[in-house]
Amino acid sequence: MGFNSSAIVYVSNETGGHAYISFSHEYSDDGPQVWTGPILQPGGNAGPLQIGFNTGFLYTGLDYWFCVAHVLDGPNPGIYATEGSLDQPIDECECEAVDNGTTIYCPVTTENFTIALNSGPCGYQMYQQPPEALRGKLRSEVKKSAAR
Question: How far apart, in whole angstroms, are the C-alpha atoms of residue 114 and residue 133?
Fold first, then answer.
C-alpha cells in the first residue's frame, strides 16, 4: 500500500554494552518494515529505517513497533525484547502528521524502548529473554529480514 507520510527512524544503543539491535514498524496490517544490522557500540545508532504511515481524515490505521537487543557485554549482557516480534510488532505508538518528514531517535536500554515521536513519546518495557528460548527465533527473524 502507498503511504502519504514517512519518517526516518534510528534506535540509539543505550544498553551500556555492545549489542545487536533489530527493530520493526508496521502501519496497520501493511507488513512490517524491519531493520537489522551489525554490532553497535554503546551510544551507537541502529538504522536508518524509513517507515511509511498514513495521516489525515479517513485514515484509521495504527502504528505498531518492536525492538530486540542482544547485549554482548557491559553491566547487563543478555537478550532483551519488547512484546511481539520483528514480523509481528504489537506495541502501539501512533505517528501523526507532525511526524511526517522527521528523523526519530529511539533510545533502547535493557529496561525500556522509547519511541520519541514529535507528536509525543511512547515507552515500552524490555523483557529479558532466556537465551535458549530465543536463540532460534532471533536467527530465523534475522534470516527473514535479510531476505527482504
Answer: 25
Ordered strands of the 122-125 beta sheet:
45-53, 5-13, 103-108, 112-115, 122-125
Three-class SS of residue 61? coil
Residue 77 burial (C-beta neighbours within 10 Å; 0-12, 13-18, 19+): middle
Query: CA-to-CA distance for 114 and 105, rounded, in angstroms?
Result: 9
Instruction: Name which of 91, 97, 79, 96 is nearest 22 in CA terms.
Output: 79
Phi, psi (rounded to 5 degrees) for 90:
-125, -10
Closest CA to 5 of 80, 99, 74, 73: 99
pLDDT digits (tens, 9 = 90+) for 65-111: 999 999 999 999 999 999 999 999 999 999 999 999 999 999 999 99
Task: With 0.90 as the threshold, say if the pTM is over it.
Answer: no
Which residue in 65, 79, 74, 107 sits closest to 20, CA to CA?
79
